Structures are given as structure tokens and as C-alpha cells.
Amino acid sequence: MQVWKDYQAENKDRFLDELLALLRIPSVSADSRYNEDTRQCAEAVKQRLQEAGADKVEVCPTAGHPIVYGEKIIDPSLPTVLVYGHYDVQPADPLELWHSGPFEPVIKDGNIYARGSADDKGQFYMHVKAFETMNKTNTLPCNIKFMIEGEEEVGSANLGIFIKDNKERLKADVVLISDTSMISLENPSIDTGLRGLAYMEVEVTGPNRDLHSGVYGGAVANPATILAKMIASLHDENNHITIPGFYDKVHNLSDADRAALNAAPFDEAEYKKDLGVDELWGEKGYSTIERTGIRPTLEVNGIWGGYTGEGSKTVLPSKAFAKISMRLVPDQDWHEISDLFAKHFEAIAPKSVKVKVTKHHGGSPYVTPTDAVAFKAAQKAIHSTFGKDPIPVRGGGSIPIVALFEKELGLKTILMGFGLDSDNLHSPNEKYGLANYYKGIETIPYFHQFFAEMSK
Amino acid sequence: MQVWKDYQAENKDRFLDELLALLRIPSVSADSRYNEDTRQCAEAVKQRLQEAGADKVEVCPTAGHPIVYGEKIIDPSLPTVLVYGHYDVQPADPLELWHSGPFEPVIKDGNIYARGSADDKGQFYMHVKAFETMNKTNTLPCNIKFMIEGEEEVGSANLGIFIKDNKERLKADVVLISDTSMISLENPSIDTGLRGLAYMEVEVTGPNRDLHSGVYGGAVANPATILAKMIASLHDENNHITIPGFYDKVHNLSDADRAALNAAPFDEAEYKKDLGVDELWGEKGYSTIERTGIRPTLEVNGIWGGYTGEGSKTVLPSKAFAKISMRLVPDQDWHEISDLFAKHFEAIAPKSVKVKVTKHHGGSPYVTPTDAVAFKAAQKAIHSTFGKDPIPVRGGGSIPIVALFEKELGLKTILMGFGLDSDNLHSPNEKYGLANYYKGIETIPYFHQFFAEMSK
């Protein structure tokens, strides 16, 4: 719509400046040292929503980081879209690998470099600006509700409680989220599913204290060695996961669905070049697209034990630790998988060590119905600004609360992401394309327009 | 000798205070942040040697931490004993496990708790006080030279150069070192051998940056997982080391020697209780005494990679690291073993990762001839103060430069240690028994006396 184009053209620079200001707030939810910044970020989001024209905007306290809520109800008889996003970000370390400060956004080669630029500040903020566009031009076609949380990167532990306590307030017809990526601006795509997550931490204890590796070496189980052996045993020679029962509930796609999935553009040479690896790695019998989309995985996210400082120390450590997470697919249940992992990990521990397994957090996998009105509206919106239909793909990441929306609110979720896999999410030098940011702001109003029309 | 007894009784408290003062200096050689403290510790050692009556005392600069030299030549025709020790200490971390400050010595239950109390400040300082005893009572039976270095805990890289450059100054008949332990004060023992050491660091690189474990998990080799698999493969199901050629030069003891070795008192139940483990672990077919004394070992001293901070981070790390050291036995060469390790570790790395192997440092194993005059003198000295003959045992630790003394100076070394295996060397709450300290000061003069007499 021309009025949207004009309004967005006039306010282009401000739209960017406001995002940069948000990116300067280090709202790292996993690290309690940033709790005050995280709270300030919530206040900033509240103010931006009010300025955009939202009503009843509120920073809702939780047992953890607060949730920002706001809404614009123009006519209760019209459809309502619930926009979800998160203002918290991943930790920035390893800091030394960043080319510029993670919280000092820099624009370079058409990209915004900053922690949270793509995940998810840059993406949820597109919705705030799209809403502002429709609101200020008096073209809002439906009701909109915003729920922007601050604990997505640490498992959204308190969002579930908030949703249960606010079912009436959150009543809507569909949930709209931009927290995923598309193949490219030339090949727009929509995620039709997400993997679930089960995040565990393990502690292996050998001797009751660090020992001299010369005096005791060879006579006492070294927890680092034992942990290595245990981790090594979690994948077999075909890179299948060896946890008993792990695959029992995995829903296998039909050959037709697999073929459709593999039809998406994928350049293995380019993929390897981008990652700097000579060879890919993964579960035997599946393509890379399948390995990252429809197959469950188990990854070591962190491992540590013994002396890791400068120089050398001839110590036989008392303890070794690892953070291990599993990505789940329909119909795996993350509680069940967490239990299977814990049971197995304890079972394979030799008598010479003690093992402690802790559940960090998790979430269930999700699949979007491609025949739903909202999905069609999203397709049409993307077509109207990209000039082509989006390719349906399965996302490898997890947004645990998507399954929660369905369970608690009975709502389907549309995953209309505008990022790229190469945006370095969770990595140093996270970036988000300026073009992606503006394209998102341009596309989102069409979703609301088409969804309102097609819902009649 | 009564004069020794009297002198030591009169100066008992000062002997302790002086040691405590040395222990308050954090001379951590591995950590450059302590370089100034380490230098100050060398100056303190110099002053103590001068006060004890040594001549030509000098802090000799090296490319690393300095070496303190001092001597007392009473008659060139008499035998000369070269006393070696080290004033540097291991890093103190993990600090949170110390009951009192590692550099704030505390006397509790008859023990001195402090980093370096047993390894090696408390032990080399016994020689300074034993020398003072003989010198001040005009009973010095032979010439004594002191060489106290500051890089033993980081591989004595510069000591070799110093020895090559000072062969004349270091001329002696035997090297005497107290940097090992005995079974107990009730069961005195002398180490008749030491294991060698080859200390390596490995770096495994997967993707060129940390990745989102959801977006890429399952499609790219995780360096932490690969490192775990590689480490796991270094021991087989019998805990034999799998590096090709590793055992080729291992000198196997005769059944008689093994029997003699296993005759030493060893209480497995007590050993397990002390370490808090339900089961011991080690190479099949060998006893604990053999596993820690006459068999080579491979231990992970440290491992790290990915996110090791608070909370969770769903990252697929770019790199994973490990510090791995091997204890060597006669006739393994540490350079050769280091090369075998590097070659093997690179060979077992899958194409999907890159591996970098670095040599930290090492040293050759050593065996003391039990028929040497100096060894007999040490046995007699211990008998005269403990009332029984010491049990000959093989020490599991390494003092790399012992082999160097033989090679460069043609000198045998006597390992007359007064510590205990339970002194928490290289661990939190390192301790040294007051009784051990004073017993050492009491015993050492007898060594010099008997060595002088028996050398005639």
C-alpha cells in the first residue's frame, strides 16, 4: 500500500536508530550480572510500544525477567493477531572473536553487527514498526497484541506461567513470530516446523580432590577421560544417537515429504566454504537439510574440567563437566527424552566415578499446518513484497513456547522469519541485514491485511 | 650428633617462621601474573642461604625465572654434594576448594597448609636449615652446593642451559634432592626411580566460528564431540594406551623386582577411602603400586571448549582443547613419545576437523642405583633418625632434570623425600607435616656425614 511505503520511507532512519538503541542494552538473560540491563531493556520496549500507539502497555513482572505486553483493539469483532518476540539475547562470549563490541552496533556492508540484531531484537522490532506504520496511517486491518519476553534464550521458564494466568488477555486467532530465518532474500522461505530441545548438564566426579597426575596417574579414574568416553559413546559409527528409546517416537516423513524438503535450494560447496570445513558430518542416510530439519540431534555445547589456564599443570582433576543439548522432532517429548538421557548417562558411568545429571530446560517440537488461513496469508504477504512464493522449510532451531501456545491458548503459530542462517546467531559477530530489517517491516502489514480479509 | 640436636632445638621456631615467610610469596611459575612474586621469592632464598653461611650466593638470571646458586667449599679434597630444589610452585586454583588461603600458611593438626609447603619450599628449605646446623656448629663434613630453581613446575626449560653453562661451578660427587615422598614416618622409604613426562596440548577445530546448535546441529562435526571420541580412543578396554609404539621401549621388571615392589605396605581400602572412590581404575594386569610406579600412563590434565559459563547456551563450538600428559618409564624417550603422540593424534582426526598438537614440556625417566655409596649413605642416615631401613620404592612423579644431571654432569641423584602422597601436591590444601619438616632437618646432616665417611 502506498501510504505504508510513504510512511516507512519518511521514517526509515528513525526506525534504524531506535533498533540500534535497543541493541546497545546488554540484555543477556543467562547471566545474572546483566539483570539490571535486562530490566532496562524491558522498560525501553514498553516505551517504544507506547510511542507506536499500543494501549495497556505494561512491564509484567515474573519470577525471572519481565514480559512486556501491549495491545491495540480496534474492533473486537475483527480477528486478533498475537505477536510474540523476545528482547533477551545470548551471552556474547567468546568476546575476543568479535570484530566490534557486541553491544556497540556497527553498520558494515549492509549489515547491523550486534548481539541480538537478528535474534531477536531486530526481528521483533520489525513488528513494532509495522504496527506503527498501520496505526499512524489509520490502516490497521485487525487487532494486535504484543507479548515480548525476556527469557527465550534461557528456556522461557516463566512465560508458561504468564500465559496460564493471562488466557483472557492473550485471546487471539493466531500467533505471529519472526525469530527464524529464510534461505535468502532471493529465495524467501517460511519455517513450517521447529525442533524441540532438551538441554542437560552433566557432572562426573572421580577422586574427592584434584590429584598429582604423577603420584596417582594410572591408578584412579580420571573424570575427564571417563566423561570423554561417555560422550563418545552417545553416537555410534553412523552418528546415530545411542540412548535407548531415543528414536522410538520420531515421526518419519514420507518419501514425498522428504523429496519436497530436499527440493529446497542447497549448495553444499558453498555451505562448507562458509563454515570452513573440508567435510560435513552427520547421521548416515540423511541429507544436510534433513539432518538440520527433520532429524533429532545431540550436541556438546560446552565441556570443561581440570586445568584450563596458561601453561601446564600436572593435575588429575576431581571433576569434569559438560553441557549437552538434544534437538527433538515430532513426536518426541522433551521431558521423556531428558529422562531417557539421564537414565542412560547414569547407566553407562563406570563404578569408579560418580555422575550427576541436571536438566537445564527444554521445549517440544512444532509443525505449522500449511493449509491454515494464517499460513496462506503469510505466503501471500511474502509474495506481494518479494515477488515470489516462499519455500516451505523445516527449521532446525527451537522456540519452545510455540508448542505452549497451542496447548494453553489453542493457537497455531506462523513463523515468518526474515533472518539468514549466516547471521551468526549465538555466535560472535551476530548480524542482521538492513535489507532484511526493512523488508520485514514492509511485509508484515500485508500479513495483517490478508489475514483479516481471508478470515472473513 | 648432640650439637645438631641442641642447635636445632634452640632454633626450632625460627626454622618454621622462615619457612612460613617463604610460603607467603606466591611464586607461581606457570602464571606470568606472578612473575614479580617469583623474582622476589628468588631474592628471599638468596638471603636465607647467605644467612645460613653459604658463599658466592647469587640470583642467576635465565630466559625465564632465575636460579639461586650458593656454595660452601670447606676443603676441595672433600666430597661435594649438590643440593637441588625449586622455589616455584603450582598454580593454586581451584581456589574455592582451599580451606585457607594458599599463600597464607596455616598450622593445623600438625600440618603446614600452603601451596608449596611440601612441593618444594618445605623440602628444599630443610636442606638450608640442615646446612646452617652443620655450618654454625662447625661440623660440616663435606662441601655443599645449592642450586634452587624457579621453573620446575613448568618443565625446567632454562635449567638445562644453566647447567651446560656452569659445569665447572656445579662440579660435585652426587646430587641430593628432597622433592618426593615417603610411605609414612612409620614406614620411611626412598624413591629409587622417577617417571618421565611428556606434556602435550591439543586443539581441535570444527567450523570456523561458534554456531547455533539448532541451525547447524547434526550437520557439522562438533569439535568437543570429536575431541571426546579421540581422547576416549587413547585407552583400550584394558586401559592400555593405544598410541602405536608407545610401549616399544618400556623396560619390563623381572618377577622378582615386581614382587619386591609389591612387598611395600599398601592398604587399598584406606587408599580408596582417602580418595573417596568406590573402585580403582588402571591398566589391566598391574597392581596400584605398579600402575603408579613402573608403568607409563596417559592423563587428561585439562579439557575445555564451548560455553562453560552460568546457565545454558545452545552453541556448537568452533574449537575444543585438552592438556594431556604422559608419565614415562625406563627406557622411554620423552621426545620420541611426544612425536608418537602427535603423529597418532593427527592420524585419528576425522577429515571434518583440523587438529593442532603442541608440546608443552617433558623429561626422561630415571632410576637410582641402589648399590651406590650415596644411596647407602641415605639409607644409613634415615636408619639413624627413623630407627629402621627405608623401603625402596618407585616414585610416580617426575623431576625431569634428574636425567639431565646424569647426562650433563655425570652425577647420580639421591631422592631423599620426606613428604607424603597425601600432602595434596598440585591440589587444593597442599600440606606438609611439621614432624616431616623437622625430621628432614634432623636427618639430612647424617647423610652428609655418612657420605663423607663412606666416600673415603
Describe the structure.
2 copies of one chain form a homodimer. Chain A folds into 2 domains: 2-194 and 365-455, 3-Layer(aba) Sandwich (Aminopeptidase); 196-250 and 296-363, Alpha-Beta Plaits (2-Layer Sandwich), CATH 3.30.70.360. Helices cover 34% and strands 21% of the residues of chain A. Chain A has helices spanning 2-23, 35-52, 121-136, 159-165, 223-232, 255-262, 268-275, 288-293, 334-347, 373-386, 401-409, 434-454, and strands spanning 55-60, 67-72, 80-86, 106-108, 111-113, 143-149, 174-177, 189-194, 196-205, 211-212, 297-306, 315-316, 319-328, 354-363, 366-367, 391-394, 413-415, 431-433. In chain A, strands 1-2-6-3-7-17 form a 6-stranded mixed sheet, sandwiched between helices. A 4-stranded antiparallel sheet of chain A has the order 11-13-9-14, covered by helices on one side. In chain A, strands 4-5-18 form a 3-stranded antiparallel sheet. In chain A, β1 and β2 (67-72) form a beta hairpin. In chain A, α10 crosses α12 (434-454). Chain A is globular and about 80 Å long. The two termini of chain A are 20 Å apart. The mean pLDDT of chain A is 95. β11 of chain A pairs antiparallel with β11 of chain B.
Order of the strands making up the biggest sheet of chain A: 1-2-6-3-7-17
Category by helix and strand content of chain A: alpha+beta
Most extensive chain-chain interface: A-B, 100 and 100 residues
Multimerization status: homodimer
What is the top-level CATH class of the largest domain in chain A? Answer: Alpha Beta
Distance between the termini of chain A: 20 Å
Share in β-strands of chain A: 15-25%
- Provide the helix percentage of chain A: 25-40%
What's the structural domain tally of chain A?
A: 2
* Largest sheet: number of strands, sense, barrel closure of chain A: 6 strands, mixed
| Estimated radius of gyration of chain A | 23 Å
In total, how many beta strands of chain A?
18
Regions of chain A with pLDDT < 50 over 5+ consecutive residues? none
Assigned CATH architecture of the largest domain in chain A: 3-Layer(aba) Sandwich
Full CATH superfamily name of the largest domain in chain A:
Zn peptidases
Q: Which word captures the global form of chain A? A: globular
Provide the succession of SSEs of chain A: HHEEEEEHEHEEEEHHHHEEEHEEHEHEEH
